[in-house]
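User: Can you recover a sequence for this backbone? Please restate the input before giving your answer.

Assistant: Of course. Working from this structure:
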């Protein structure tokens, strides 16, 4: 459950208490609890996060649920923790147009008007993108609309500080329009914004996910992390879950790379940050060109091409879109990475039990065949009749062999290296074993 834990505004740094989606918590500044509504610049930052938002927070029985993107949901929860009357804010500042979030753009913008016909454009997104739109930053006394020259290096350092702590960082800004403006276009968000601040949020890795990543490593499976987050955030989270890589690749580096170039890159890199869905498709193709079997996870509409291209597309069942689910071969009903590891373990068990069943059935048939062939070659009476053969096959195949299908998971099944994709179901060692057991049975 994504939670805002830190806010950086022109008037200082704030920490936010409370975990999860319940709108209960407090705001601390310099270790002291403060009232966010008494600090205009902080209030404007929280209001921007609430209004420039497509998610919704709803209470179901004793729990709170987010409808929409968890990152946007975290901003709503933070605004409600401040005591803001969110319903009134939406009535006072109705949305009239928007530019939806796209991974390629790295921002979302919404247009609002108050009852005095004054327009506001709020934008939220990647800090480096939002900072490029800004020519100033809001002054502490935001009620008067005062602003000052923006210190971009200062905010870039603040972004790095938050990201290096494993926080997902979003920047927010506002642009005031003196007259009514009905349509929001890309040219309206290219300049003239006042920077409002940064929101740092965290979604702590689940313990079972950390364990699952370790089990995948033992099983010879490489886990790669592909995210739209900042490079330092990606590195910090990757280290928490056990994905350690010397090289972190950014989406900017991937631009213009051909599949052949990516093939060489994929052998060394396991962490990709600030990437777009188009990059995901390229990465899948590069891995497949290297002879790898690829499972790709995703939840958005733009993830569908990569999910379709992967050998096993895996969609999120809770947060995933219908398009992503349709494009996938598998849907996680709990959105938990550990479920993928358990599916691999189950698959290996099924394959192992299938081999055991074949290894049990074929020597019986082989022994019968050798016995009959030997009798024919020696010119003796057949030692077993057809009805007896059918009886033996009925007992061995149906009654006894079926129990092997329900064999429990063996110890160390996730420590075995992966099979080669072109490996036969029955390899040479099994053929030798079947031949040996068949000969012993025939002789007996």
């Amino acid at each position: 459950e994504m939670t805002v834990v830190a806010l950086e505004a022109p008037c200082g740094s704030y920490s936010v208490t409370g975990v999860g989606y319940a709108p209960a918590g407090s705001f601390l500044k310099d270790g002291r609890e403060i009232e966010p509504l008494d600090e205009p610049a902080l209030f404007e930052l929280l209001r921007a996060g609430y209004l420039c938002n497509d998610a919704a927070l709803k209470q179901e029985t004793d729990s709170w649920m987010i409808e929409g993107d968890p990152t946007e949901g975290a901003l709503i929860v933070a605004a409600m923790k401040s005591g803001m009357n969110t319903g009134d804010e939406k009535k006072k500042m109705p949305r009239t147009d928007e530019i939806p979030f796209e991974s390629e753009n790295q921002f979302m913008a919404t247009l609002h008007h108050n009852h005095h016909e004054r327009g506001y454009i709020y934008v939220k997104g990647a800090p480096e993108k939002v900072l490029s739109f800004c020519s100033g930053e809001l002054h502490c006394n935001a009620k008067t609309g005062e602003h000052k020259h923006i210190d971009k290096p200062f905010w870039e350092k603040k972004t790095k500080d938050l990201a290096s702590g494993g926080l997902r960082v979003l920047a927010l800004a506002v642009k005031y329009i003196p007259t009514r403006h009905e349509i929001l276009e890309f040219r309206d968000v290219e300049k003239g914004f006042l920077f409002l601040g940064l929101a740092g949020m965290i979604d702590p890795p689940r313990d079972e996910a950390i364990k699952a990543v370790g089990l995948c490593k033992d099983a010879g499976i490489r886990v790669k992390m592909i995210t739209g987050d900042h490079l330092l955030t990606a590195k910090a989270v990757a280290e928490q879950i056990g994905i350690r890589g010397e090289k972190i690749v950014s989406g900017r580096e991937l631009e213009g790379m051909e599949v052949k170039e990516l093939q060489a890159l994929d052998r060394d890199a396991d962490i990709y940050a600030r990437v777009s869905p188009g990059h995901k498709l390229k990465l899948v193709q590069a891995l497949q060109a290297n002879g790898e079997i690829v499972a790709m996870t995703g939840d958005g509409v733009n993830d569908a091409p990569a999910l379709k291209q992967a050998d096993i597309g895996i969609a999120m069942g809770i947060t995933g879109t219908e398009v992503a689910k349709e494009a996938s071969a598998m849907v996680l009903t709990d959105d938990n990475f550990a479920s993928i590891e358990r599916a691999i373990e189950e698959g290996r068990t099924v394959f192992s039990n299938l081999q055991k069943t074949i290894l049990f059935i074929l020597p019986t048939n082989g022994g019968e065949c050798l016995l009959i062939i030997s009798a024919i070659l020696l010119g003796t009476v057949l030692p077993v009749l057809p009805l007896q053969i059918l009886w033996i096959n009925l007992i061995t195949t149906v009654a006894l062999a079926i129990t092997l299908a329900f064999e429990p998971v063996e110890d160390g099944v996730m420590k075995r290296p992966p099979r080669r994709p072109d490996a036969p179901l029955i390899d040479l060692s099994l053929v030798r074993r079947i031949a040996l057991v068949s000969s012993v049975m025939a002789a007996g």
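That completes the design. The longest helix spans residues 337-378.
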